[in-house]
Amino acid sequence: MTDQNETDTPPTEAPEAPREPERDWGWVWSNAKTILGAIALAIVIRVVIFEAFEIDGPSMEPTLLNGDRVVVAKFPFGLFLPGTSEAVANWGTPSVGDVVIIKSPLDDIDIVKRVIGVPGDTIEMHDDAVWRNGEPIHRRVLGPCRETESSENPTDCEWVEEGVDALRWRTSHSYYSPHEDMGPMVVPPGHIFVLGDHRDRSNDSRNPRVGMIPVTRVKGRALAIYWSNDEWIRWDRAFSAIH
Questions:
Q1: Do 179 and 186 contact (CB within 8 A), yes or no?
Q2: Which amino acids are annotated catalytic?
């Protein structure tokens, strides 16, 4: 028999030990890999594929203006690492008419110029007209420069259309500059001959201290203007291709 004074009491449970917060190291490592991958991709794009470049000065007017920001394709010609003066590897040569970024042999700074001659070409100038391989390239006077696309007074400046084959581009020069003669000069293997589109204000292959440019000093080809501003934003130039 059960004692009437005896009461049933539930067994006492031992308290649970406090749990340490769980750490999902898999989630942390997955995010770290994503971040590191994005950084590595950005470095590869910057070093090997594309680079941004800001135009400084009038040497490429009217094609490129002071303050234009351009996208440069680095991969067509070789591997050009930051902080170097020449490509560590080359696998291509620019074509006539290309606008290229060059590490200048004169002072080792980046300059932008247009390719006029490639290896084997004979380049000369007569009365400001460019001759290539014994024949003048296409040349047509367009008229006074537009004030919005030149640092010169329009009454002093003239635009000229030049080109080879189906490719056309614009150049500019002063009405009052002396007519220039040069050459003939043969472009040696592994080099290019370059001119600025503003023929009176460009330090290019006409200068013996610059001369023919080794292809190893070509950093890339300018593709497009993605932004433009000097004293004001030039909305009409943003996102425009370079010809």
A1: no
A2: 59, 113
In a domain, 15, yes or no: no
Phi-psi sector, 21: left (phi>0), alpha (psi -120 to 50), beta: beta
What total number of domains does the chain contain? 1
Greater model confidence, 15 or 172? 172
Neighbours of 47 (CB within 10 A): 14
Asked whether 131 and 201 are in contact (CB, 8 A), the reply is no
SS3 track for the chain: CCCCCCCCCCCCCCCCCCCCCCCCHHHHHHHHHHHHHHHHHHHHHHHHHEEEEECCCCCCCCCCCCCEEEEEECCCCEECCCCCCCCCEECCCCCCCCEEEEECCCCCCEEEEEEEECCCCEEEEECCEEEECCEECEEEEEEECCHHHCCCCCCCEEEEEEEECCEEEEEEEECCCCCCCEEEEECCCCEEEEECCECCCCCCCCCCCCCCEEHHHEEEEEEEEEEEECCCECHHHCCEECC
> Domain limits at 124?
51-241
Q: What is the mean pLDDT of residues 83-106?
A: 95
The per-residue pLDDT for 18 is 55
Q: Is the pTM of the predicted complex or chain greater than 0.90? A: no
- What CATH number is attached to the domain comprising 222? 2.10.109.10
pLDDT at 234 over 70: yes
Whether the pLDDT of residue 35 is over 70: the answer is yes
